[in-house]
């Protein structure tokens, strides 16, 4: 596993991060043990950065991490969670809630500090509140030592500039914007570097779009996007390669992206991703796939408030 | 199901008793049942409760823990599995223990577990609800879609307010209007604290256990009225639920008598408010399923 520096934080993150949203699903008890094991397998593979949120499974992800991480020395992993989004429709970015939310996350996970805490999916609210109320409150919590580094996460690129033109951040987390199909997050690298902000990328498969698996029901991809992605996957398959391998290798090879967060409750898959990340990418196949995906390059959809979205 | 034609709208009313207990009496396990409560020193099982609810048209009940043991919680869930009219169980689990998540994962495999309760009223530590391990247990409930029933005496209300504030997304249920000092005729500071607690929107309140907070032998409905009015002021009918606390209520009040007293109290309310108090709030709070005969 390769590690990279995260902005000016001094933290060194593995190029693959463990996305614990996968622990937010409903489990049968047998799956539950597998899900817990996926955390340990990740740590054993050197994937020692875990990203979660009180939104994932309405807290289930944090609760299960608390169980999975019990007895694991705190210095063996870096832990990031988020605040402000609690269900698909319930957002609360008030200063008071910042304090309560961090405390609840600490309790659930049985830890005394968070390495990273992000304002979650801020494009769903009036972003002036994030700048004027949420982040100042989070900085106070940081002063108390409960949180080491703070930032924001969300879908549109516009939100990062909105916040960073008005205040400072230690880190940002973007998703679905640095993949085989969409590289818009990389365009933001010079701006973020100049501000000294650490870049974390998540979701190299764009919610299974760049896998051979079926898309989740809520996926926003249009029929054209789905068909094009399928052609790319089939092209890889014809060469005997899983497009997921290419997707992981593409997302981790850009040195500007400190880590690539991706999640599963399947231990075998965790191991597979770690192995892929250590292998060189097939340049020829990458060029062919990029050519196939060209018509839908940088295609994106709307999340949250329309005014917070990218043109 | 009954059709209510008397109110301000046609409403179909499902009545739920949101709070009662079952037990197989054992003098050691139920040490709190003292000589003044001799009447309830016997078994109370589903057949006994059916005899009480059937004549009143109450369709469902929520069974609440009375001992602090996982064995009792499992037993209540077994009873609920056997009886359709037991719509939900408020069980006990060791909230302050490191094993709590495993326990909750195990217990919630039974879909009728709806909430957890701890007998905080008997905890000698005045800051019990402020302790970290207890709060870690509370923080684990929401992901399992469980409510938390708060059982306290009125003097513990300020600590309960802190607890409810600390977990803004967790749904809480206040049992027995926080046991005011009806016996002493004392309403303050209970009233002020109830009004303060009622300002939180993540808590609802059970109108139950009131006669047993008065003098068992010499109480009157009029004596309870100011406490009921306060509960109404603090929570409004939509966040109140009718419960009997049967069989504990029997030391002071028959099942049908308590039902009649609450019915009188709520007579001036609108039909939809009465419907909320007598069943709808409980159904929504505890996410109770409809009974088999009502499914369609």
Describe this structure in words.
The complex is a heterodimer of chains A (311) and B (296). Chain A has 11 helices and 10 strands. Chain A is an alpha/beta fold and 311 residues long. Chain A has an 8-stranded parallel beta barrel with strand order 3-4-5-6-7-8-9-10, surrounded by 5 helices. A two-stranded antiparallel sheet of chain A has the order 1-2. In chain A, strand 5, helix 3 and strand 6 form a beta-alpha-beta unit. The longest helix of chain A has 17 residues, at 127-143. An 8-stranded parallel β-sheet of chain B has the order 3-4-5-6-7-8-9-10. A two-stranded antiparallel ribbon of chain B has the order 1-2. In chain B, strand 3, helix 1 and strand 4 (58-64) form a beta-alpha-beta unit. In chain B, helix 5 runs parallel beside helix 6 (190-198). Residues 1-12 of chain B have low confidence and may be disordered. The chains are: A alpha/beta (311), B alpha/beta (296). Chain A binds chain B through residues 29, 32, 57-64, 66-67, 70, 86, 90, 92, 97, 100, 103-104, 107-108, 110, and chain B through 98, 101-102, 105-106, 109, 132, 135-136, 139-140, 142-145, 165-169.
Radius of gyration of chain B: 18 Å
As residue ranges, the low-confidence spans of chain A are none
Identify the overall geometry of chain A.
globular
Going across the major beta sheet of chain A, what is the strand order? 3-4-5-6-7-8-9-10
Global morphology of chain B:
globular
């Amino acid at each position: 596993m390769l590690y990279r520096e995260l902005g000016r934080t001094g933290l060194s993150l593995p190029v693959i991060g463990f996305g614990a949203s996968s622990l937010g699903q409903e489990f049968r008890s047998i799956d539950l043990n597998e899900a817990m094991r996926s955390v340990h397998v990740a740590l054993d593979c050197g994937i020692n950065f875990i990203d979660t949120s009180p939104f994932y499974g309405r807290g289930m992800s944090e609760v299960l991490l608390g169980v999975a991480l019990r007895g694991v020395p705190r210095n063996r992993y870096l832990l990031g969670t988020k605040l402000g989004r609690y269900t698909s429709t319930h957002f609360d970015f008030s200063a008071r809630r910042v304090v309560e939310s961090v405390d609840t996350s600490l309790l659930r996970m049985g830890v005394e500090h968070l390495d990273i805490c992000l304002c979650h999916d801020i494009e769903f609210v009036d972003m002036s509140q994030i700048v004027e109320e949420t982040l100042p409150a989070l900085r106070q919590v940081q002063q108390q030592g409960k949180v080491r580094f703070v930032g924001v996460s969300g879908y549109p690129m516009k939100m990062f500039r909105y916040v960073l033109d008005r205040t400072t951040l230690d880190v940002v987390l973007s998703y679905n914007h640095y993949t085989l199909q969409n590289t818009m997050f990389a365009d933001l690298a010079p701006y973020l570097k100049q501000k000294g902000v650490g870049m974390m990328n998540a979701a190299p498969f764009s919610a299974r779009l760049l896998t051979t698996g079926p898309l989740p029901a809520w996926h926003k991809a249009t029929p054209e996007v789905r068909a094009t992605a399928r052609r790319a996957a089939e092209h890889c398959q014809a060469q005997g390669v899983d497009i997921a391998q290419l997707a992981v290798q593409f997302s981790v090879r850009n040195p500007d992206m400190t880590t690539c967060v991706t999640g599963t409750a399947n231990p075998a898959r965790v191991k597979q991703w770690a192995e892929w990340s250590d292998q060189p990418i097939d340049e020829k196949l990458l060029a062919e796939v990029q050519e196939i995906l060209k018509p839908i390059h940088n295609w994106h959809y709307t999340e949250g408030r329309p005014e917070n979205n990218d043109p | 199901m009954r059709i209510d034609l008397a109110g301000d709208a046609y409403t179909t009313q499902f009545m739920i008793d949101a709070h009662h207990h079952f037990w197989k009496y054992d003098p050691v396990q139920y040490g709190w049942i003292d000589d003044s409560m001799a009447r309830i020193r016997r078994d109370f099982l589903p057949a006994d409760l059916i005899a009480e609810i059937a004549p009143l048209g109450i369709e469902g009940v929520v069974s609440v823990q009375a001992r602090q043991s996982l064995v009792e919680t499992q037993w209540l869930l077994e009873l609920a599995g056997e009886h359709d009219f037991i719509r939900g169980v408020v069980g006990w689990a060791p909230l302050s223990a490191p094993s709590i998540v495993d326990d909750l994962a195990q217990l919630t495999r039974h879909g009728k577990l709806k909430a957890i309760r701890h007998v905080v009223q008997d905890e000698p530590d005045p800051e019990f609800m402020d302790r970290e391990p207890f709060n870690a247990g509370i923080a684990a409930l929401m992901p399992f879609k469980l409510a938390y029933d708060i059982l306290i005496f009125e003097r513990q209300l300020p600590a309960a307010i802190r607890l409810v504030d600390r977990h803004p997304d967790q749904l809480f249920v206040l049992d027995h209007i926080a046991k005011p000092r009806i016996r002493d005729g004392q309403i303050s500071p209970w009233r002020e604290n109830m009004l303060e607690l009622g300002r939180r929107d993540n808590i609802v309140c059970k109108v139950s256990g009131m006669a047993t907070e008065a003098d068992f032998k010499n109480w009157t409905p009029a004596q309870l009225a100011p406490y009921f009015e306060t509960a109404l002021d603090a929570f409004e009918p939509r966040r109140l639920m009718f419960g009997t606390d049967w069989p504990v209520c029997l030391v002071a009040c028959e099942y049908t008598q308590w039902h009649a007293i609450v019915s009188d109290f709520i007579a001036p309310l609108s039909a939809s408010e009465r419907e909320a108090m007598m069943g709808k709030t409980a159904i929504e709070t505890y996410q109770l399923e409809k009974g088999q005969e009502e499914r369609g």
